[in-house]
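Quick start: what a row looks like.
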Amino acid sequence: MTRANAALDNGDTERVAPLAAAVRAISAAMGLELRAGDDEVDAATADLVRQRDEARASKDFAVADRVRDELVAAGWVVEDTPAGTQVRRA
């Protein structure tokens, strides 16, 4: 778990995926049900984050600001980090 958290903090999502799969497999074998937390990002939100990152990378700040406003209206706090846009529930 420590490695997974460190990888998440560094934006290393490729490293997190196999660790998360292992946690799910172990939990299932133990009969534990993992449920999403309030901060889990759904597919639509992840798509908006991707669109915002692409807009910022191409310096289309009008689109980036519009997408930020959509995320905020949906109840997310939007933070710009060196690894890209990060969101968490407000």
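That is the whole record. The mean pLDDT is 86. The first helix runs from residue 2 to 9.
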